[in-house]
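Researcher: Next entry in the queue.
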Amino acid sequence: QVQLVESGGGLVQAGGSLRLSCAASGDTLSNYIMAWFRQAPGQSREFVALIFWNTGRTYYSDSVKGRFTISRDDAGSAVYLQMNSLKPEDTAVYYCAARRSKILTITTDLYDHWGQGTQVTVSS
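Model: Structure for this entry, 124 residues:
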């Protein structure tokens, strides 16, 4: 069983940057996909980015491609989301998620493990 704890959210002005962290524990991550999702008020949870732990392959939603970067800490069990050029529409609760699989998926319901979320607010 994987436990996930996010940190790093906050309030930032449009155009600014934030770095989210997700600390993972409880299992070896080599067979996992680690992902970030977000949920804005009144909206469904949506995919943001993912990384295959064993290969480092990444995949992004079109809305964040070129602005966000997902990475992992090879020495530990942490995943990061570097968010640059933030926009007010990036405002949401950001969740770290994990799925034991080697098949790319961005479907929310297929992820088995979730963190508690961290709030990101971008002011205009």
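Model: The chain has a mean pLDDT of 95.
Researcher: Noted, moving on.
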